[in-house]
Design a protein that fits this description.
343 residues, Adenylosuccinate Synthetase, Chain A, domain 1, 10-stranded mixed sheet
Length: 343
């Protein structure tokens, strides 16, 4: 059995897509399935100089032999999904759970007209909240009701459980981040559902005993799009001086930037119970670490990793050092002695 769940530990934008793509390339799972919300949560994957922005298709699209699924708990916007399938030319690889809820035009209109969502929460305007509400009220349209989706309809729960039983490998890709969970995040400034590893499993029809690996992803300087508390936030001017200027994958809005928050990270560890921890954007800490994959880290970067590990009481297993999927120091099976400082 091999089933890995990949989730974010902060406010989203942790580079879960990068980590999911890297693990897909190195582990080559038979199936990768997207969990979480819908097209309002974007993943960016950079592979060999090509940038792919994904809103529905799993980031494991970079692994040619991996089946790509969307679970029953995922919200589907047919136009976005079909355009991605066409652009990526993955018609034969994609499957959509027939029970998944469809985002309709009125959901987007209702979200953009809602003052709480637009002003207080500052949502992405993707229709997630109203679509979730309609599902709760049993009035939502499902994927099986959309003619254009019929070629892709499958029973995702049956497929992923069969893959687990057969040992072909399953990766579950979560969206959003722990701090945005409607249950454990900064309510009401959250997304419309929970975003923990446990809910990601439920989204795709997996029981807890099917999972043997949880990867929790943090970034060295967390970012947040939209409203809500951000205890370690720094000013836009300071972020710009540090070279941290980012924009949301879906909305294009500037991302707020903060310093690593050990307290939030420890809570994310406690509730998600990861077997592996990833830390990305180390090159923001020290530009000299950018693109490193095997070499010893320069002193400032090594000191930052040591500080985070001391705060969390955990080894960092995967260290992202740049935008490319392959810009990763993989410490699995190596131990702390493999990371040291260099002048």
């Amino acid at each position: 059995m091999s089933c890995t769940v990949i989730v974010g530990g902060q406010w989203g934008d942790e580079a879960k897509g990068k980590v999911a793509a890297y693990l897909a390339l190195t582990e080559q799972p038979g199936v990768a399935v997207r969990a979480g919300l819908g097209p309002g949560a974007g993943h960016t994957v950079v592979l060999d100089g090509r940038t792919v922005k994904l809103r529905q298709v799993p980031s494991a699209v970079v692994s040619p032999g991996t089946r790509l699924l969307l679970g029953a708990g995922v919200l589907i916007r047919p136009q976005v999904l079909l355009e991605e399938i066409d652009t990526l030319k993955v018609h034969e690889r994609v499957g959509v759970d027939y029970r998944a809820t469809v985002i309709q035009p009125n959901h987007i209109e209702r979200e953009r007209a809602d003052q709480v969502l637009t002003t207080t929460v500052r949502s992405t305007g993707s229709g997630h909240g109203p679509a979730q509400a309609d599902r709760a009220m049993r009035s939502a349209v499902q994927a099986k009701d959309i003619p254009e989706l019929r070629p892709y309809l499958v029973d995702v729960a049956a497929e992923v459980n069969a893959a687990v039983d057969e040992g072909t490998g399953v990766h579950v890709e979560g969206t959003n981040g722990f701090g945005l969970s409607v249950l454990y995040g900064t309510y009401p400034h959250t997304v419309a559902k929970d975003s923990t590893a446990a809910t990601a499993c439920a989204d795709v029809g997996l029981g807890p005993l099917a999972v043997d690996d949880v990867v929790l992803v943090f970034r060295a300087f967390p970012t947040r799009v939209g409203g809500g508390p951000f205890p370690t936030e720094i000013s836009p001017e300071e972020a710009q001086r540090m070279g941290i200027v980012e924009f949301g994958t879906v909305t294009g809005r500037p991302r707020r930037v903060g310093r690593f928050d050990p307290e939030q990270a420890r809570e994310a560890l406690r509730i998600n119970r990861p077997s592996r921890v990833a830390l990305t954007f180390l090159d923001y800490v020290d530009p000299d670490s950018r693109g490193l994959r095997e070499e010893l880290l320069p002193a400032p970067a090594a000191e930052f990793i040591a500080h985070v590990e001391n705060e969390l009481g955990r080894q960092i297993d995967l260290i992202g050092t740049g935008p490319d999927t392959h810009d990763m120091i993989d410490r699995r099976g190596r131990g702390p002695a493999q990371i040291g400082s260099r002048p």
